[in-house]
Amino acid sequence: MPKADYLIIGSGLTGSVIARTLADAGRDVLVVERRDHVGGNVHDHTHTSGIHIHTYGPHYFRTNSDRVWDFVTRFAEFFKYEASLKTLVDGQHENWPIAASYIAKHIGNDWKPEFTGTPTNFEQAALSLMPRGIYEKFIKEYNEKQWGVPADTLSADLCKRFDVRADDEPRLKPDCKHQGIPLQGYTHLMQQMIQGIPVELNFDYLKRRSETQARELTIFTGPIDSLFDYELGKLHYRGQQRKHTFLPDTHNAQPCGQVNTPMHSHGPSIRTLEWKHMMLPAQAQPISGTLLTTETPFTPNDPGEYEYPFPDNTNAQLYRRYREMADDTERLLVCGRLGEYRYFDMDQAIARALILAQRILRHDPNADRLPNG
Ligand SMILES: Cc1cc2nc3c(=O)[nH]c(=O)nc-3n(C[C@H](O)[C@H](O)[C@H](O)COP(=O)(O)OP(=O)(O)OC[C@H]3O[C@@H](n4cnc5c(N)ncnc54)[C@H](O)[C@@H]3O)c2cc1C
Fold this sequence. Notes:
- By secondary structure, this protein is an alpha/beta fold.
- The protein contains eleven helices and 17 strands.
- The strands form four sheets. The protein has a seven-stranded mixed beta sheet with strand order 8-7-13-14-15-12-16.
- Helix 1 (13-24) runs parallel beside helix 11 (346-361).
- The longest helix is centred in the middle third of the chain and has 16 residues, at 132-147.
């Protein structure tokens, strides 16, 4: 039976950062992973054309934290990549996030947001940033496709992920201090991070619990409801079905790596990715053809396809009940994007994992519970 002092379930960023930090401090660690590869959601691979593709959707690394940047660059070199996104509106590629100049051009210089007051749902929150005509072109149907429900049933908090740009700055995060993509890819980064630590691949902990044991602490980074056999019901997720199209005679098909297709009239997909834009130009240039991927939202049943926690109160409340169960179980820490039922950018997942690992190393009596915030 594989045993260790610290058993870590899941080799994504959360599990791997904790594993690395504990192993560096001399602790006995074992990682088990359901998939046949390490890296979790940030895994990437190379298409037969030589184009590098992020297996589970595009990943743009960025952080303002020197600590997080120093940590990741220990394992891999990054090239500078600052994502610029476009949205297809009336046949034109417009900036995303929305530029105030676009609103001024189409509505007038004295435009005002449609909604005043305290928003109680996503639609109101979005309308508190912009006029209705703009909301309807850029936001409403995109989110209805993404979540599969009317926009006024979604949480207002979702709006925290975008704004209206006062200037015409096309970069997604112009103020972020460190930005890039690992030169040899995310899979290489993750393999380097976890190097020297025992990892069992193709090991579904939920099916093989009795085959392994932690002497000190079990750290579970999979879906929290699955760990408790869905005793209180299932948490709802959305995923993306990805369709890849290789165009052998086209060098570049779109102006940037990601073009959003927000309207129902664009079809059910919400965005098209062109991976060559996300490669170092010197690596992408000699490759003939281009690879496009369209992403179409759906509701997955297989936990391996869970991507976005569903942003509504019903699921938030159900998660809180599972959280109590997890925190009441001794020597068990449930964390990470699936364990905390929360969207984390990569740098947030790393920063959080570093904090959790330090608590474990300090023998904090609450190390098997999540810190607040
Ligand atoms: C579509 C998409 C795009 C994203 N783009 C960006 C981006 O551009 N920039 C950014 O900063 N962040 C991005 N993110 C966020 C990023 O993917 C997360 O921050 C990161 O994946 C969190 O890592 P994690 O280890 O918490 O979870 P995961 O990567 O999901 O790792 C969990 C691991 O646990 C394993 N596991 C689950 N259950 C079991 C089990 N029963 N037994 C064994 N193993 C199990 C899984 O197979 C998986 O490997 C994106 C996320 C999504 C969904």
